[in-house]
Amino acid sequence: xxxxxxxxxxxxxxxxxxxxxxxxxxxxxxxxxxxxxxxxxxxxxxxxxxxxxxxxxxxxxxxxxxxxxxxxxxxxxxxxxxxxxx
Length: 86
Hints:
The protein is 38% helix and 17% strand. It has 86 residues and is of the alpha+beta class. Strands 1-3-2 form a three-stranded antiparallel beta sheet, covered by helices on one side.
């Protein structure tokens, strides 16, 4: 329950989270929500909606199955993009 309460605060600092993900050498970050308006927020940040199967299986251990059925899942590549060669 407490983790869900902290999620909105995390969402307010997307740049900071991407930097942390890069520092950990992660390629992809995920956003999970049950609210379409939060999904629209993720999309404005460059996330793409994906199916539940795109999220690593480790994320679902201990997750409430009833809640999982209502989730909208989003992912974003956090690797730095190189400028195209001119």
